[in-house]
Amino acid sequence: MTVRDRLRLGFSLVVLCLFAYAGLEALDFSRRARYMPLYVSVAGFTLSALLVFLECWRMRTAAGRGTRRGVAIEDLAAEDLFSPEEERHRLKTTAYYLLWMVGYVAMIALVGLPVASALFLGAFLLVEARMRPLATALSVAAMLAGLLVLTHLMHLRWPSSLAGW
Amino acid sequence: MFEAAVEALGLILQIDRLGWMLLGCSVGLVVGLLPGLGGTVGMSILLPFVFGMDAYSGVALLIGMAAVIHTGDTFPSVLIGVPGSSGSQATIVDGYPLARQGKAATALSAAFIVSMAGGVFGAVVLFATLSVAQPLVLALGSPELFMLAIFGLSMVGVLSLGSPLAGLISGLLGLAIGTIGGAPGVPVYRYTFDLIYLFDGIPLPVLALGLFAVPEMLDLLAQRGQIAHGAKLTGSRLEGIREALRHKWLVLRSAALGSALGIVPGIGGSVIDWIAYGVTKQTVRDRENFGRGDIRGVIGPESANNAKEGGALVPTLIFGIPGSGTTAMLLGGLVLLGIEPGPAMVREHLSVTLSIVWSLALANIFGAAACIACAGLVARASIVPASRLVPFLFIIITVAAYQSTRHWGDIVALLVLGVLGWIMKQAAWPRAPMLIGFVLSLVTERYLHLSMSRYGLEWLAFPSVLAILAMIVIALVLGLAPDLRRRRARARAASEAQS
Amino acid sequence: MRIMRPLLRTAGAALGALTVLCAAQAQAENGYYAGKDIELLVPYAPGGGNDTFGRLLQTQYSACMPEAASVQVVNVPGGGTVIGANEFELMREPDGLTVMVTAGTTSYAWMLGQPGVRYSPRNWTAILGLPGGGVVYVNPDTGVTGMKDLVTTDAELVFGGISATGLDLLGLLTFEILGLDVKAVLGYEGKGPAQIAYQQGEINIDYQTTPAFIKLVRPQVEAGTALPLYTAGMVQDGELVRDPAFPEYPSFLEAYREAYGKDPSGPAWEAYLALVSSGVSAQRQVWMHKDTPPEALVAMKTATDCVINREEFYEKGDKILAGYKPIVGESLQRNTKAMLSVSDDVLKWLRAHLNEKYDLDLSE
Predict the structure, then answer these.
(1) pLDDT above 60: residue C112
(2) Out of B161, B411, B427, closest to residue A11 by CB
């Protein structure tokens, strides 16, 4: 099974559980508020179960493993299908960039939006884009200027932070 | 009526009023351009100025803004696959692949030309229906509105042809997520886990940005590429305009659809572009390329979503019932100007009403012209390496997402949904149906409940209900039949090849 | 690199402009609010009647408080004002920099113990109130021509509303007191759509607040497709009197007398009176936190007096105020007291009634 297959099956199972949970929760709502979530959950659960079943079935047949004839792949462009090693590498790279994003958000919570944005942008451009320090500094300055002007003109709000900035 | 129209045009075509309109247009374009912000942000900037203005200038300002949001919001949709505002989601499906092929300029200018055409069409529809609007709007009761919501939901089928089961489940997930928060009509809060943030549900911009923007940015970074594969721009603005002219009937059809649906209260701007996309796909030949960069997948929705503004002004002006957040604020602005929209609008404020129509048409033309002028330059953003572009984008998106409810929950939800969106993208689960299900969830539940509460089960037999049902079935058949045929042919060919 | 220089120039210009703007705003004058930003929190989506009221206030307070840096409307919609009120209570400092504009629904939701309510008007001080009543009207197609018909008709009466815990409760209680059998179709998105439903024939009896009634229903009254029956009335010295915006329509009390020849009584009537005194005499209110520093309270009260004495307030707000006069000071405080001291019996009865009739589970 490729990483992608495992991902698909895993996701289908998670969705199945989500619908099960949602349906059970819905039973506790008052009568009027119950119908919609209940029916949607039941329908979702049924279809998800069907999907899980079909996924497992297709993966049994040799032709079904990781090829285009999986349950759901007609809209993947050719270049999006990789070998298992490439897929694992991509997963790691994505996790790495996600960490950058989470880090940025964490910084906002600590030092406030403008400082965090400056740090995030500066660090990213230097490390990932390998921009020269001068170009990076100018980009950060431009970003800050744009941020301040737009915030003022559009009465935007910034998230609260520990530093209070 | 026509003399009054000419007179109103004269009132608008004064330098200072045109100046206000241009200001409004600029605000609208910027708001549309920045992903995640919608008309309400623009309105909240302009409303404080409106107080104390004369009615015609105020109208020029506000309508100038409202008219061009759906022109400017094409930029992020095409260039980075991120919804610029809630009305521009469907453009991503074919617009973004076009940008990836280096044809950003083509897609953008085609979109702008048809946006202009659609917007002007919408203004014409507004003018034409002003006197006859009342019976039109009154024909849509709760059962009819429910059926129209179902029609919107049926677009899920069209949008997930490669993976019907996953698409359907995705739509149901969207419906389920839409139930988070307050139930319509009863003070019951569902699935909130006692988090105050969830009391009002997940905001649409956060969902859209999380599901589409974050995964796109992560993938661009991971692939170390840039938006346009091979970093080459092959399209051109002229080509875009040519394509738009080539498909002029499609433009007209979509504009008609958009303005008609815009009149329907409650269905909301964000589904009209999906419906337009779905209907476009269902009604053209050779649709294999839809989803991979078929220019018609851009032309249809873009024309419709500008036209809908004209339609949406009909219930707003004639009944004082806004159809969306933008029109709601517009209503507030008009009241502050001393104009009370309502049944007496046409009678008492005819020249202001007509100046609204003219402003709508003129603003659309200005907006489109401005956008086309800089489309070439802006399209170059698609060859900027991801590692330079994405951090800027992520900052913009984070700030924009936070404006939804101004709580930390917005940013947290953005990340969580971003991960969900990424997983779905890798697993090739269609995400568009989830968006549709989410947007229509509350509306569907509300009108179903109202229909059942009022009529029991009788409403199922109303002729209007049956007519809309027939429309849904026909649309589904038109949409699915050719693809089913193709699948069967392919399967047959595959099995023949094996034997 | 080539784009860097013009970019730098633009950035410099932007920063320069920004500095000038900020300096202009930092004009220091005396007063608690000098140079500060005031937030007008509106727990409604932009564009509704209450939002427009909030924006009217914004313009008037701006004019009356030139020392403040800005007066901004911030919309926090959702949950029928519950979300916004929660936010005001839990997430705004009592520093006088935030005032909230509420409607009757906010008070009712708290009184009834609606789930999700995390605020309490006991923690607030009212600084401005605007009365707001409404009218119950019926479709003549039902054959009803007056109060006596109303209580004896066989026609199916269908009422359309948003929910049973908002202002519609007033209308619903009047039906209860009259002993009418009215089918309540609740869940409309707003009273606007409900009015459209009335025109469509989907519902045939409705309660609309004054501004909406004047704008939407009056033309229908003149055309003969709507028959006004009674107004919610106002409580004055313990009595239910006519609504000053509709001196020509009977109050509910008079209407009841006409139907039955005697005065109403019983728990439903007590509850009705309580709801009217807390949600009609000052239907829209502007609140501050109780713990606000005294200087802020004084400054805001002075500004409020300025606002309600401005001609522009009544001119521009003509349609918004719908002919009602704002109340401040003593009478406003009396109203707040009335709202906070609704008897427990009445509340218990209301909750039980809502539970039984509308299947609403309202906690303590």
Answers:
(1) yes
(2) B427
* Per-residue model confidence as pLDDT tens digits over B311-347: 888 888 887 777 666 777 787 788 777 787 777 777 7
Q: CA of C26 to nearest chain A CA: how many angstroms apart?
A: 14
Q: Is residue C17 part of a domain?
A: no
Q: What are residue B264's phi and psi, to 5 degrees?
A: -70, 120
CB contact under 8 A, C7 and A138: yes
B268-277 pLDDT, tens digit per residue, is: 667 888 889 9
pLDDT at C18: 56
pLDDT digits (tens, 9 = 90+) for C166-183: 889 999 999 999 999 999
pTM for the full model?
0.85
Q: Are residues A113 and A58 in the same domain?
A: no
pLDDT at B200: 82
Q: How many structural domains are present in chain C?
A: 2
- A31/A67 same-domain check: yes
- What is the domain extent for residue B466? 2-487
Residue B492 resides in a domain? no
Say if C21 falls within a structural domain. no
Greatest Cα-to-Cα distance within chain B, rounded to the nearest angstrom: 80
Q: Specify whether C252 is located in the same domain as C332.
A: no
Cβ-Cβ contacts under 8 Å between A and C: the total is 32
Nearest-Cα distance to chain B for C215, in Å, is 7
User: Is it the case that residue B418 has pLDDT exceeding 90?
Assistant: yes
Same-domain pairing of A8 and A45:
yes
- Nearest by CB to A135, from C1, C10, C18: name it: C1
Structure confidence at residue B318 (pLDDT): 82
Same-domain pairing of C96 and C121: yes
Nearest to A138 among C4, C21, C360 (CB): C4
**Is C266 among the domain residues?**
yes
CB–CB of A70/B160 below 8 Å?
no
Q: How many independent structural domains does chain A possess?
A: 2
A161 within a domain of the structure (yes/no): no
Q: Which of C188, C360, C362 shows the shortest C-beta gap to B450?
A: C188
Min Cα–Cα distance to chain B from A64, Å: 14
Instruction: Assess if residue B496 is contained within a domain.
Output: no
Contact list in C for residue B44 (CB cut-off 8 A) is 46, 73, 75
The pLDDT score that the predictor gives to residue C2 is 59
Task: Kindly report the nearest CA distance between residue C21 and chain A, in angstroms.
Answer: 10
In C43-103, DSSP assigns E strands to 70-75, 98-102
Q: Between the CA of residue C181 and those of A57, C154, C177, C187, C357, what are the distances in Å?
A: 58, 10, 11, 19, 12
Flag whether B251 is in a domain: yes
Let me know whether A7 and A70 are in one domain.
Answer: yes
Per-residue pLDDT at C254: 95
Provide the residue range defining the domain that includes C246: 134-279
Number of domains in chain B: 1
DSSP H helices, B183-338, are 204-208, 214-222, 237-246, 248-263, 269-282, 296-319, 325-336
Judge contact between B256 and B307, C-beta under 8 A: yes
Per-residue pLDDT band for B230 (boundaries 50, 70, 90) equals low
The answer to whether position B27 is within a domain reads yes
What pLDDT does B231 receive? 65
- Residue of chain A whose alpha carbon sits nearest to that of B450: A32
Domain identity same for A10 and A38: yes
Q: Does A31 touch chain C (CB under 8 A)?
A: yes
Query: Would you give the distance in Å from CA B295 to the centre of its chain?
Result: 17
Residue C357 forms part of a structural domain? no
pLDDT higher than threshold 60 for residue C243: yes
- Percent of chain B with pLDDT strictly greater than 90: 22
Q: Which range has highest mean pLDDT (A67-71, B431-435, C74-78, C225-229)?
A: C225-229
Once rounded to an integer, what is the mean pLDDT over residues B1-29? 84
Comparing alpha-carbon positions, the chain C residue that sits nearest to B140 is C200
Q: Which residues of A touch C72 (CB under 8 A)?
A: 155
Walk across the sheet containing C98-102 and list its strands: C70-75, C37-42, C98-102, C284-289, C124-130
Q: Which domain holds residue A139?
A: 90-154
Residue A29: pLDDT over 60: yes
DSSP assignment of B35-89: TT--HHHHHHHHHHHHTTS-HHHHHHHHHHHHHHHHHHTHHHHHHHS--SSGGGS
> Are A71 and A101 contained in the same domain?
no
Rounded-to-integer distance, Cα B327 and Cα B329, Å: 5
Question: Residue C112's closest chain B neighbor by CA?
Answer: B187
